[in-house]
Amino acid sequence: MIKMPYNDILEKIQEKSGLSEEEIKEKIDGKLKQLSGLISKEGAAHIIANELGIKLFSALSGKLQIKNILVGMRSVEVVGKILRVFELREFNSKGRAGKVASFVIGDETGTIRIVMWGEQAENIEKLKENMIVKVIGGYVRENQTGKEVHLNDIGKLIINPEGETVGEVKEKISSKRKKINQLNENDSNIEILGTIVQVFDPRFFEICPECGKRARLKEDAFFCDIHGKVQQNYSFVLNVFLDDGTDNIRVVCFRNQALKLLNKTQEQMVEYKDNPEKFEEMKTELLGNIVKFVGKTTKNDMFDRLEFISQLVFPNPDPDDEITSLTKELEEAKAEKESMTEQVSDKGENEIQDTHNI
Question: Same topology for domains 63-159 and 176-317, yes or no?
Answer without folding.
Answer: yes
